[in-house]
Amino acid sequence: MAIAASLPAFAEDKVEHVNVVGQAASLDQALKEQKASDSIRSVVHADAVGQLPDDNAAEALQRIPGLSVERDQGEGRFVSVRGIGPDLNSVTINGTLLPAPEADRRAVALDVLPTELVQSLSVVKSLTPDMDANSLGGTIEVESLSAFDHPGLFYTASGEASHDENTSQTSPKFSGAFSNKFSLGDGIDNFGVAAAFSWQQRDFGSDNVETGGAWDFDGDQARLEEAEQRDYRIRRERTGAGLNFDYRPDDFSSYYLRTLYSRFKDTETRNAAGVEFEDPQASGERGDGEGWRALKSREDTQEIQSYVFGGERLIDAWTLSGQAGFSRSSENDPGGIANARFEGDFSGIGFDGTRKPRLGTGADFYDADAFTLDKVEWEKANSTDEEKNLRLDLARDYDLAGNASQVKFGAKASRRDKRADTDVWVYDDFDDVTLAGYQSGKVDYVLGNFGNGISAGAIKGLIGGMDRDAFYDEEESRINDFSMREDINAAYLMNTVDIDAWRLIGGVRYEGTEFEAKGTGLRDGVYSPNESRKRYDHWLPGLHARYQFTPQTQLRAAWTNTVVRPTFGQLAPGFMIDDSEGEASFGNPNLKPLESMNLDLGIEHYMGRAGTVSAFLFYKDIDNFVYNTDLAGTGEWVDFDEAKTYANGSSAKLYGLELAYSQKLDWLPAPWNGLLLGGNLTLSKSRADIEGQGLTRRIDLPNQSDTVGNLTLGWEDDKLSLRLAANYKSKYLAEVAAVDDKAHDLYSDDQLFVDFKAGYFLTPNLQLTFEAQNITDESYYTYTGRSRFNSQYEEYGPTYKVGLTLTHF
């Protein structure tokens, strides 16, 4: 696949002159890698990754055809491939699986990876049998830098200042990289060392108004139960480092050690003000209700460590390769205010507007003495995810009836352990404590009137003198804890043969999985352990074909089979059941893995330097699709009003078309010969059936946008580089309501982000850059059933950056 929009502003590694450094050079390198690949693969090369107006790897990947990102506070976090949700795709770093820091997810939030640590990003959309089969949409491959990526000494250093328009905060960033080759023994330049470092501190925020979908619908009449205003202030710090070694003692062997450390720290203060109406109200109405003011103040740190040692040796016609990998992700909240809530009763309150509701209240809503402290929730949490693997591969080239062939086989063993531990304290023994003594300054909120915030220091001082053991919440602390073990043993056999203009790859992969989950449940006040064990096997055949019409034009086709395990949150063994209230919620450790049969067919044509046009059709038939459901009224839960859990659906289907184009218009007269054009468009459709309460309903796949596209206009000469890029994704189903309640499904609205970057070489090695992100001030909006009914609306504002980069090749 071509990437249309990954157009960097800086040098290709193997060149030394400014007149061949820039957007076209790096795009051309990426296209060469894609053209030669045996898989349907998209690549963002190192120079593009480091020079896009993107803060992290997730945002860099959104430029690739068929990819979109889920954003948190305006920054890209999780990557969706061809409409398949992030938890159903996998991420590898230097060939080893990257585990997820979050306790309940498999998806890796790629904003923990600074772009400066990355040599290349690839997305493989059709897996060959020698690759792990654990992705439905695609496998994202992250490669860190190697000294052998450059001909000799290489170093770069950059500094940057960014300004957030929403909070008027200015933030710093520093990064650098170094690599060189040395001679050991009798060899010449046979040992390489590469290192990279990045540090960024970003102060920013957002303004939010949300209802959580709490609408009562009666035909066209909509009444709201509650609404809340939120103001976020965030300090986000990213630190990343990598140290890599390569040793190539001769022409027949090579060895490497890849290490990476990444630390992502969020310090968040969230002030909220909301109302819950005594009776649901329409826009413009006024009535009685409960008002509240709340504070969340927490610190959350995610860390990723990865260590990979491997090598390859040629022995006559055989190629022996192997790799040992260890990676560890963690998320740690050392303890913070999860919710400090003050409440009061009010009359004459309401709201105005249904898309961005504004609270309609009297002056008493801004009187601190009108609110008394209800409770303070203090929470600390820790989760870890470790993955160890060992892989061995053997390949042999041979002649098959006069055709060049290769047989390849191997095995891999991986061991994964996921653990989560949460402790909660709920302080609620207060005697008429009002908000008056616990206020901070006025909240800067642009979506309406807010008033003063709550002081985190004052709240901590209040509960610091109380006996914490008396307020420990055993229920919340125990039922969310778990440990899970997932052992996978795999083996494969594949054969590649070149017959005239054809390259054919056929093979089969076996994966055997052993799964164990341990946790605690609560039923009618009694705690009990819950353990689950199961084993399952998969045989996954595949066939790839590539036909070379001309040296510039080729046809690709693939039939593959993949398997993905449900998320850890879906498999969680904890449960909470209250027979007297008729309410239950629980995970489902007995869920079956998702299985997908995938078909891909496409054509790609390469047009000189940095030019390509391609079209691909894809189809996925997914069995055992997982969805949230309510089992109340059926089976064991026949007398319950609510029994929320997860279930396997029979099947889901996804099909679509990917189109991509990019070209440097170097045949035009100056200055138009500096123009670069790029664009890609993915059109897709999906359907899945869910069941519950004796009913069946058809839905779209969650997170699947019917339309995803990029458009890029660039221009460059020896000194100046300009790029304007737009990224669009249409609305998608974000959350499924009960099977009989389609009106309360939550949708994320379409988004269009426009970014600009300019770079000017002050000297052949020193570049001044300017960036503008989110120029159009795009917001985030989710709605309930129909687009005019708010679930969440959030504004971020644009960000502007100025930087200097010094580079030596």
UniProtKB/TrEMBL annotation:
Gene3D superfamilies hit by this protein: TonB-dependent receptor, beta-barrel domain, TonB-dependent receptor, plug domain
CDD domains per record: ligand_gated_channel
Organism: Pseudomonas bharatica CSV86
Top-rank taxon, per record: Bacteria
Residues in TonB-dependent receptor-like beta-barrel domain copies: 349-775
Start and end residues of each TonB-dependent receptor plug domain: 36-139
GO cellular component: cell outer membrane
Protein name per UniProt: TonB-dependent receptor
Keywords: Cell outer membrane, Membrane, Receptor, TonB box, Transmembrane, Transmembrane beta strand, Transport
Family to which the UniProt record says this protein belongs: Belongs to the TonB-dependent receptor family.
Membrane topology listed for this record: Multi-pass membrane protein
Main location: membrane
Subcellular location(s) of the protein: Cell outer membrane
